[in-house]
Design brief:
This protein has five helices and nine strands. The protein is an alpha+beta fold. Helix 1 packs across helix 2.
């Protein structure tokens, strides 16, 4: 996959160790991290650990991560798992919410994933985070099903909605979460 992805307002690029300093306020923001799969950073070492994890997963081929940069400064991230789920994730600094930047980054990133041979991507959002679901819809992902999970590492019960975008024909709906969690169902979702 391309290492640098420019958009009209953003630049998506691989992470480097120096990004931890710029991203520490974002990683430490409790509200911005409420729906993310880690606890807010308390120290610079926590931020370095997160950036190091992103870099290690890229190097190991288990995920593709890009720093989302605005005016040359990292302000968030976007990533996709390289396993069967092909799970897409993204987040930006809270002061940048509502400006269409997550979707802008998402379109560039999804295009690169498709060019690199990803057959599809999935994405899930907590039902209490409909803004993330709105981004998924803008990116052309369609709702497939919902499920309840005892979500780790935060150990809370969460209802997730699973969306998917197929890049080729006959990708089929990813059923991994459906099969893993006994409490699952399909909802009528508008849009």
């Amino acid at each position: 996959m391309e290492k640098i992805l420019p958009t009209p307002r953003l630049l998506l690029r691989e992470f480097c160790e120096e990004d931890a300093r710029a991203l520490f306020p974002f990683f430490a923001d409790e509200r911005a991290n409420l729906f993310l799969p880690w606890f807010p950073a308390r120290t610079m070492a926590d931020a370095r650990e997160l950036v190091g994890r992103f870099m290690a997963e890229d190097a190991g081929g288990t995920a593709v991560h890009r720093a989302v940069c605005l005016a040359g400064e990292p302000v968030g991230y976007i990533h996709a798992d390289c396993g069967e789920s092909r799970d897409l994730g993204y987040a930006l600094r809270r002061d940048l919410w509502g400006q269409g930047l997550a979707a802008e980054a998402g379109f560039a990133f999804l295009g690169a994933l498709e060019r690199s041979g990803f057959p599809y991507v999935t994405a899930t959002h907590d039902v209490n985070n409909p803004a993330s679901g709105a981004v998924m819809k803008k990116l052309g992902l369609t709702y497939r099903y919902s499920y309840r999970e005892q979500w780790q590492p935060k150990n809370i019960s969460v209802v997730f909605r699973m969306y998917q975008r197929d890049f080729g024909e006959n990708a089929g709906t990813y059923r991994g979460y459906w099969d893993k969690y006994s409490e699952h169902w399909e909802e009528k979702i508008d849009g």
